[in-house]
Every structure is written in structure tokens, then in C-alpha cells.
Amino acid sequence: MKNIIPISLKQLAENLPCPLYLTGGVVRNYLAKLPPSDFDIAAPLSDEEFADYAVKNNFKIISIYKNTFTVKIKDENNECYEFSSFRNESYERGHIPSQANFTKNITEDAKRRDFKCNAVYYDIKNNVFNDPLGGISDINNKIISTVIEPDKVFCNDGLRLMRLCRLCGELDFTPDEDTFNSARKFKNQIDFISKERIYAELKLILSADTKYNKTYGQYNALKLLHKTGLLELIIPELTLGENMAQRKDFHNWDVLEHTFLTVKYAPLEIRLAALLHDIGKPYCFIKNGSFHGHDKEGAELAEKILKRLKAPKKEINQVKILTALHMYDLNLLTKTNKIKLFIAKNHDIYFDLLKIKQADFSACKDNLNTCSTVLKWEKIRNEMVESNTPFSLSELKIKGGDLTELGFIDKNIKIALDRLFKECVINPQFNNKNKLLQLAKEIKNE
Prior knowledge:
alpha+beta, Beta Polymerase, domain 2, 7-stranded mixed sheet, 24 helices, elongated
């Protein structure tokens, strides 16, 4: 452990009148043989006492949070650390403590944390671990249990419910029986957490595999989010798909499991869209008895859900478009020219659309072969590139000013440019200024 500790922290520990501990993720990860996380430190010193010692040892104070006895510092190499005084906490509602009290007792400090695996301490100066609650055993057994009775942990802080799911995905750990049962019991505590915080945790769950390179960690975390009952409270429209059967010739799974598998096989950048791509299926089936039109209905539902979760506008737009288009040319019957126009029109999201189509295909029957639609579209697009097909209006060899000189005015300029663009997508050899000017004159004379 001592080999991964920065020299500045070692020197600070030598000059304190009490032990300085590493705690939280960095200790847990070392014991679990995972990459190190942030270096969080703690000691039985008040925030002000610690800040004085830190300055004397060439650290700079970034900020002090007196309500939580927390000090953020950085060393001479601009490496940042967060110090917390030993403390105990009390809660009312939500994830922010209503009161914090300083203590010198390491066990009390451990009990105000969430899970035992995060409550192991490492004494930097003396090179020893301090494990007041048995967290090392949990780490060795790859389980997550709470620092005190789980009912009290989850009753105090509803965000810890989602954090449990995320950590299980990130670490490839499993909650023990009491912790899991308590999470289900107190799932409604999530109602006291802001939508912004819920959305942030959901995004972390969807990227859980990337934290420590745990294959399909996002799938495992998402499944646990469902098993605890939290997903039903966060996105009830999604869990309506549970036990909703699909055509056996296309699907091995019900709508909800297919959704989870789409997230499993999706690359990180489109996982939110993967989660919501079939959100319209339960709605359409309940309303009409079939899934027909679920892509268009789903786009509207996805937008509504993400607005409810306070998602950024850019992500809402991406998910809405991908949901609306993910069924296009599913039967491979769309003609080549229509595909060319479709690719050109949607070129800004084309590659994301390929990814959602591939993940959707793989999730139907756990088939990791390349989706037939992807093969078809890429063949067409490669031909378009080879023939210098324009993929945007800016690539046309004629501009709005040229049309103005020909006598086009106002909205007619845009209409003409759109027609010229479509012509060049189908016949890229026409993307020549003289030819386009001639075509524009013909359009004007119509």
C-alpha cells in the first residue's frame, strides 16, 4: 500500500500529532486488486486543525466545508485530496446530513459511511490497516454490506440505494441478503432525492463497466436496480415491458430483458438511447395490442422521461432521434436511393444509429455477428464516399448567394438548395458549379 501513496501525503502524515488515514475507495481498491481511486484522507482532527497542519507542510487550501468538517487541499504538484475529520452524522430526508458532529473515535466515523468495504482505513505513517467493522472480509468475499443496520443506512439516505447498484456493477460485488432486502424495503426513499442526482447516478450505472474494466458491469448494475424495485420508481414506463412477450422468431426475451441486453451490448456513448429505444413498446401494446409504431411513440416518451429526469437538452435530442429511427429499414427492403438520402440527411447521427441498430440486433438472440442492416448501409455509404457524394449542404459546389444572383428569394433559396442537394446525393457527378447552376435555372423556370 505504501508504494502507491504520494510523497506529499507521507510527509504530511509524519508531521501530524495523530495518525493520518487513507480511506474509502483507494483502500478498498487496493485490497480488491483494482486500480486506485481518489486519495481520500481522514484523521481525528478538526477541519481547522488539519488545515493549519496542511499549510505548514506546503499544501494549499482549496476550500473548507465547516458543516461536514471537510477540507480540500492540493500539494506542490497540484495533486488534489479531500480530508474529512472523524465525525458522526444524522439525517432527516435526502442524502445530505442534517447535522454532523466531530469525534475522535474511528469506529463512529466508520459507522457514518455507507458500506463496510468503504470503511477500511490505512494508517499512512505506521503502514497498518484499521478495519473497525469487518470491511476487509467483505472485500475478500466480493460482497457489499452496510456499516450499521441496513434499514438505518437506506432510511437515512435514498441515494445510497442507487449507489449500491452502481458499486456492485463497478466492483463486480454482490449485496448480502440483508442489504438487498433492506434496499427493496426502503426503495421509496428515492422519492426524496432530486431528479438531477438520480439522473447522474443512472448515467454512472450505465457506465459501470468502464470504472474498473468489469465486463458487462452496466448490465449487472441495471439488473440490480430493477431487482431492488428502484427502476420501477425511476422509469416506470420501462418496467411495464417485464413479461411482455415478443415474437419468438425475432426475440428470445421479453421487452424488458431485451432492453437490458441492448444496454449490455451497446457502446458507452449510446447506452442511454439503448435503455430507452423500445420504451414505446409497452405503451403501444397496452394501447393497441401490438408494437406497431413504437419507434415514433417511443421517441416522444423518451423525451418526456428525460425531461422529467432533468437530462441535458443535447442528450435528450440524441436519444429522441435514435429512438425514432432505430427501426428504419429493419426488413432490408428500402431502395438504395432512399437509403442514400436517409444517410445524407442523418449523417450527423449516422454512426450512433449504426451502434444502436447493432446493439438492438445483438440483444434479440445474443447474436454478436454484424447486423445485416449495418452491413447494407455501410456498403452504400462507402460507395457514396468513393463517389464524392456530399453529406451536407456545405459540401455543395453552389451557395445561397449564387441562387440569389439567379433571382431566387427568401424561402425559395432553401427549397432550391435542398432539391439540388438531394440530386447530388443520388447523382454525385452533378456536384459541379456549372451543372448546379443549370439545374437551378430549370428549377426556377418550373
